[in-house]
Every structure is written in C-alpha cells, then in structure tokens.
Amino acid sequence: MKHCKLLGIDLAKTVFQLCAMDINNHVISNKKVRRKQLIHSVLEIKPETIVMESCYSANYWGREFQSMGFNVNLIPPQHVKPFVKTNKNDHHDALAICEASLRPGIHFVPVKTIEQQDIQGMHRIRERLVRDRTAIVNQIRGLLAEYGVIINRSYRCMRTQLPLIIEDMDNQLSFIMRAELNELYEELMTVQERIKSIEQRLKNISDCYQGYKSLKAIPGIGPITASALVSQVGDARQFKNARGFAAWLGLTPKHRASGTKIVNQGVSKRGNKYLRKLLIHGGRLVICSYKQDDALKRFADRVNERRGLHKASVAVAHKMARIIWAVLSKNEPYNPEHVLKLK
User: Fold this and answer.
1) Are residues 276 and 191 in the same domain?
2) Residue where a domain stops, chosen among 154, 189, 206
3) Can you say how many angstroms the Cα of residue 321 is from the centroid of all Cα atoms in its chain?
4) Domain total for the chain?
C-alpha cells in the first residue's frame, strides 16, 4: 500500500469504515473492518494523521491511537455533513470525514482525558436526575389538582408542603391517594439526595484542576458551572479569541447579510447547550444579586434597564463567556476592573 497521509474513520459499535488518502489526497482504500480488527488495521496502514467525527466513542479511540503515537484529530459532525455525497452510507461518510478535515480553517475538537470524561459523565447523570425530579413534581401537582389541592410548582415548596397536605384530614384526599403520594414524596427525596451526592463529588474532583478556583471567583459561576467548564472546555487556547469561545457556546448573534445590508438577529444557539444554559442562569443570578458591586454588575444593570431581564441575562452570559476565555487561556485570576475591556 502507498504511504498513507490521512486516515478517516467512521465510528460505529461493531463495523468501522476506514478511508485512507495519500500525500496527493487521493483515496488509496476505503474498506470496512470489524471492531476486533480495527487497531491491527490502523497499525498496518500507519497513517500520519487519524481523523474521526467527535461523536460516540471518539474520545476512547482517540486516546487509544494517541497512546500508539498517532496524531489524532476529532472533527465536529456538522462540518462533515456538507461533504457527504449522494446517498448516505459508511463509505461516503468516511470519505466525507477526510475531505472535511482538509478544508482550511477547520476547527478540531481536542481528545478528552479520562478525568474530563468522568466529570462530564457525572454532569449528564445529574442532568437526568434533575429531569426526573421535575417529572415527579409535575406528576404530584397533577394528581393533587384532581382532588382540588393546588400547590406551587417549585421543588422547595413541594418538599415542605406535601407532608402537610398528606397529613391534613380536612382535604378530599383518600387514604389510597395519601399512601401513593407518600411513596412519591420518598422517591422525590431519594432523587434529591442522589443529586446532592453527585454535586458534592463534582466539587471534590474538580478541586484538583487548574483554573477551577479561578472560575469560581467569577460572579455567577458556582461549583457546578465551573466543573462543567473544566470538563467541556479544557484548554481554552484551542479558541482563537474570546468571541470564538462565545460563538462555540451559541451566545453570539446570528445575522443575515446581502450586499451592504446586515441584519443582526438573536443568539445563534449553536454549540454546547448545557454550558449555555448554565451561563444564562449565572447571568440572571448576577442581575438579581444585591450584594455584588463591580463592573460586571453595573454592566448587567444597564442592559437590564434597556432590554429587560431575559435579554440582559443572555448579554451577561455572553460577557461571562469572554471572561472565562481570558481566565482559562491566560491562566490569570479574575479581575473585576477588566470586564469592560473584553469587547
């Protein structure tokens, strides 16, 4: 076989597609291999660079190939899709991965470490538990409404008021429903304890990471958001500037342009929606804080007066994203007086 400059791998559970290109970017081979044969096939081809989509199991295989001395690049799936020709199949997908990686200015995703994946996995478990908690609260409220008992949708109100409702003999709840509600309450408390346990472990694990304490010093960022940033972002120097990081989070405005006419619209909502949600919640916290008095708070108040709470929360989240990039990329502590210089 000719010398392989680039090897594109279309990942799967059992059958993988390997597309090899030479130094002239011509396809040498494009074949299927089984999972057990993948490592042997890669060692046989000996490519200079291995490219994979940043998707299911990509980080695992990336670490495996890096340990063998290969240069590994992970490419976002949305950059691959435009290069898929005609019918979509494994053969065309592997070829599209190679062609997309050859485009100038393409942004690759770093391979995550095992520690980063541990934290990311804990965040995903916590997010699922939060959804379960919300589902239980909604079900309890719906059941109570059928008996003429209305309760606030807040989890905190549910935790304090539900036991009183179950014990109140003046309402129309039957003994059967009281027993069912009591079991739902115990299930709710179990889920809440599980969430607290994960949050505590996240704090303990993230303490050893560089930049974690600096992130927590930024207003609106607590242990959960800081640990999520540590696991998802890693080295912020992969982004060219602060705006690039904000764009990756989907916090920059999208626009339509034709000739000299440019129309800016709402935020793009591209990229990592979990981090975007956490930062917007943090921006709302900055606006509603009464104890804070620094440049970020004054910026938040000015935007809030002009545009309202919701738009101001997104604007503050955008500003926070730029601050986060500066803190992580420069390894410097948060300086409140430099906030307004991050344009």
Assistant:
1) no
2) 206
3) 13
4) 3
Cα–Cα nearest to 115, from 193, 185, 236, 207: 207
In a domain, 154, yes or no: yes
Range of the domain at 125: 114-206
Q: CB under 8 Å to 342, separation ≥6 — which residues? A: 242, 319, 322, 323, 326
- Residue 107: inside a domain: no
Sign of CA dihedral 34, 39, 44, 46: positive
Give the strand pairing for 71-75 and 49-53.
Answer: parallel
Residues 313 and 331 placed together within one structural domain of the fold: yes
Q: Are residues 83 and 135 in the same domain?
A: no
Q: Is 202 helix (H, G, I), strand (E, B) or coil?
A: helix
Write out the chain's pLDDT in tens, 343 residues.
678 999 999 998 899 999 999 999 899 999 999 999 999 999 999 999 999 999 889 999 999 999 999 999 999 988 898 899 888 899 999 999 999 999 988 888 889 989 899 999 999 999 999 999 999 999 999 999 999 998 888 888 888 999 999 998 888 899 999 999 999 999 999 999 999 999 999 988 888 887 888 899 899 999 999 999 988 887 788 888 899 899 999 998 887 887 778 787 888 888 889 999 999 999 999 999 877 778 888 889 999 999 999 999 999 999 999 999 999 888 888 877 766 555 5
Q: What are the DSSP E strand ranges found in the chain?
A: 6-10, 15-21, 27-34, 49-53, 71-75, 253-258, 261-267
Report the predicted TM-score, pTM, of the whole model to 2 decimal places.
0.86
Q: Is residue 293 part of a domain?
A: yes
- Shared domain for 222 and 327, answered yes or no, is yes
108 assigned to some structural domain: no
Residues 168 and 148 in one domain: yes
**Alpha-carbon distance 300 to 279, whole Å?**
14
